Predict the structure.
Amino acid sequence: MANVRALTEKDIPDVAELRRRVFRWRQEEPAAARESAVRRVFWENPFVDCRTPSLVLEDSEEGIVGFIGVSARRFRLGCEEILGAVCSSFMAEGRGRGLGGAQLLKRFLEGPQDLSFVDSPNTEALNLWARLGTVHAARESLHWVRPLRPVRYAVGRLRGGRLPQVARVLARPFAMGLDALAVRATKNPFYLPAPESQEGPLAPEELRRCLADMENPGCLVPLYGQDSLEWLLDSLERGPKGSRLRKALVRGKTGEPIGWYIRIANPGGMSDVIQYGANGNHHAELLNHIFHAAWSEGSVAVSGRACGYSWDQLLQQGCVFSRNRPPVLIHSQRCDILTAFQEGRVHLSRLEGEWWLIHLCDA
């Protein structure tokens, strides 16, 4: 017999060991380090809510054979506060697979939250979510890529193909020269003008104010408390080794805030935008600033999740859309929430989704 129940602190060693076996997670590290990561991310973070606890599947003979980590998130839709829950690290083994895994996920979806979602489901979770009546959030599942050094980006895409390593090395000087011309030639899609905007540090209170400015009666936007946002941003600063977090408040040439961004810098590779937002009609100016900042650091390209309100500007800025990443899946009994997703009236970034949970688990 298998039983689904809320995670307790005494379960943490078993959950950490289950994650190591199922995901081959941090295999070379001591058990204490893995347990510390699970405790920090799923037990001690400020988004833990007794109404939507993380769940374990316990077998009478094999012990804990399944787990879903749950993080409660608050949103505002119009004048109403919405309780959301994002799940992460869905895993099962042995008797927990099959019906046991479905039982675990079903219990999560039957919780008191108004909105359940996941944005990085593995294959097993994807199949189960589909069978349990979830909805594919098509708009939020789109990702964009903006090549900054288009020739090097194209060569990098062939890295796993038939292009020999020696050919890539010999082509590098030519690629660098062509890329330098691409950002300066005004009549091409990769032109990157120097921005007139300036950026400065993004403090938690400034980010809260930026998100509040985006609120309007028809949009679903995230809500943060001061303490929870400070914890989240501070934790992301101490992310996995080698990750470089950039968070900035961007001001226009007259000094007024035009937007903000949070991204993972990757000189020589792909810079990843985690969250961004523009004030008023400054979308194009903000995007150009983000692209130029990543280009100045040496990134080959920059990517992010599409937001419905900025699609046109992303296209005009030379971005390419794709669905080559895991989809965003949602579940709700409320028609107004589902309609907001269908119409693109949602500001759901990876800062609210599963990404930060995975990021901190690897820290």
About this structure: Residues 165-182 form the longest helix (18 residues). The chain has a mean pLDDT of 88.
